[in-house]
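Input set for joint prediction.
Command: fold jointly, output tokens.
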Amino acid sequence: MSDILQSLIDIVGERSVSNAPEELWFYSRDPGVLAPHKPDYVVAPKTTEEVQKIVQLANREKVPVVPMGNGMSLAGLVIPLKGGIVLDMKRMNKILEVNAMARYVVVEGGTSQGALKSYLQKNHPTLRHSIPDAPATTTIAANVSLHGQGRLTNQYGFNSDMVTGLEVVLPTGEICLIGSPSIGPYWISKGPTLPDLSGLFLGWLGCTGIITKVGLKLYPNKKIRDAELFVTDRVDLIPHILYKLTHLEMLEDINVWFQPKPLMFLGNYHITIFFTGDTEEEIEFKRKMVWDCLQEYMDSKDGGFMSMQYMKPMLLEMPGRNIADFADVPKGGGFEYSGPIAPIEHFPQYAAKVVELAAKYNVLYASTARLISGGHSMMYSISFAFNRNDKAMMERVEQALTEATAFALDMGGIPWKPNFKEQQMTLAKMEPNARKLLLMIKKNLDPQGIMNPGNWEVNS
Amino acid sequence: MYQLKFDQKVCASCRSADCLLKCQYMTFSGHKEAHGEMMKIMKGKDSRVLSECMTCYACEEYCTRGNHPFYLISEKREEKGMFTAPRPITNQWINMTVMQGKCLVGNVKDKALSCCYIPDLGPLGSGEIFKDVADAGVFGAEFMCPAVHTHFARMSVIKERLPIVIDNYRKLGVKEVICLHDECYGTLTSIASAYGMEVPFQPVYYLDYVLQRMKELKDKIKPLNITVAYQRSCSNRLIPDKHALVKKIFTLIGVKAPKRTYQDENALCCAEILRSISGYKLADDVQKRNIDDMLAAGAEYCVFNCPACQTSLAEKVSKRGLKPLHIIDLCKMAIGEKEREAAS
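tokens >
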């Protein structure tokens, strides 16, 4: 038995460490198209102190450490590109505090979206968090670490904007509190009015530390959720429609999507408009506001509201499961997307690009855009489904995604959760001094370069 | 291509102009104006009717001379490139109902039980009432009456697809097709006839079938002693002679349907299509008047003939205290196959 394995066992116990090939197999891959790479060890700590000891061990041994939530980014962000220790955070799943009046929760770094949703429904039914359209087992810390979005992103911004404080184990092993919890007992601000140190960790994909606790804003959970589905065949109208909808300032979430299958969706762009209310009156008022604001498109016959009674239960699911259905259209259950953050005025160009890439690489597309912060930007998903048993198809999807990222960068977009190759494309595009600043931060925080190496690597 | 058989002389000599004067969504100063508008339509001229018609189908019933004013309006709208509903909604319906070879065909011999392309119809066509034909169901775009496209003034789709649907039935070798949806029966009788399409089998209206079966099951019937409001469907306007069956069935199973303001010829539609065409204001108004009227009549149940109407109104009537129920389920309730509490 190696010294490292024994040391890990000493820290977390035998049941929480493995280097068995069948376990490493699972931890070497994610559901996207990137090639797998095996870690040397998998370890599942239970406490911040155990995380700290593992990081100290990794520093001593100069072994990579890759913190992992549920490994569902699809972009290979926790594939251990250089081996080492995968730190599976899922045992750190306690919900530590809910401050109902201040509307925040503090959770451990491996707490899942589903666990928090369930806990709030049971114990604080008037509160909710911004649930991403990812499997319920995905974790809150991982989601904020990659600037995820969720159901409340149109109203309140990226899920990482909703962070109210962090506890982080630094790459050198120190345990560090970020934001208001560094001053007092309340997790009410990740930064302001202090220098905002949360930016040293949010968006870094675990390259600058391991998030062991997250404070997260909670929001009113209205009693009723409802949705309307507006369709148009004129892509040029989409930005204007979105502008009108966001002007209402009352919508929970807005998604724009189009896909060629099933046939009923062919040729149209669909805008799912979610809204909430505590009473039927509130819901009906909002519904009428939505219809009124788009009436001009009905009058011109360019757009209309779909009758959607059959689809409504599926659309109102949180998280939505229909995304997974898309993965299996070509059979073989795979899909991945490039998700650039872009201005909504560019929707028509992105839409055209999706169709162009699908035709060029002979792959099946679907596209969903989610509005962010009331229309300041959107996450534009360029999604392709593939058969995992078809290597050639997976290669074509990878090429299409790379080209999509290049297109997004040319359009001035920012790639969301880019894989390591797309990160390099982004860094190459980045203003040199910004790139230099990233390097300075990384070198100072992680002098040994052990944290999730291969990601956000700036070559000096 | 099939042509609408519309007798211009019949229309020109009409002394009532009821097709438009009785319309619930357009108003005319009198016979002269209404008749004048129909003449314009007939001659291919512009008419406000072409923009204002809500496609409720009722003029097909109001014209007692069998001259199909609604089909003519729809034809002329399409000729002029007009859209009733928004273009993407129109095209969505066309795409959604394309035949893709995904139909389901049961154990069909002489008779087929048509479930159109409506999943809800399958479960309805079951139990003691349908025991002889329940396994002979057919479902899918290949067996769907394309009448819905009249709402969108796309008669070309009907003319293209209906002969294929008829032929699909012919290939099954059936002698009878029992239509669980008014629209199918209306299509195979009214529309097919209006366009001179031969139907090489006997379309059977499901309420004829249900009435006959309920008579056969008379010993099992326990009068329901309930008060209902009946929601007449738009497609029932294509077959107005069949409307009387509802009352016969109600009488047989002990159901009272008190007189309402909006019933029979004056019935209001479920308004779902109005929502698509005009927006929520008219649709909400029609639905509110309709449900107010049901409640004023003292109804406990809202009984549907069409699953689409039921989908459109079920939640709304429930919220007002009425139990929504399809008329087949009502009959199943009368013979003890369905619990009263099961209405939802």
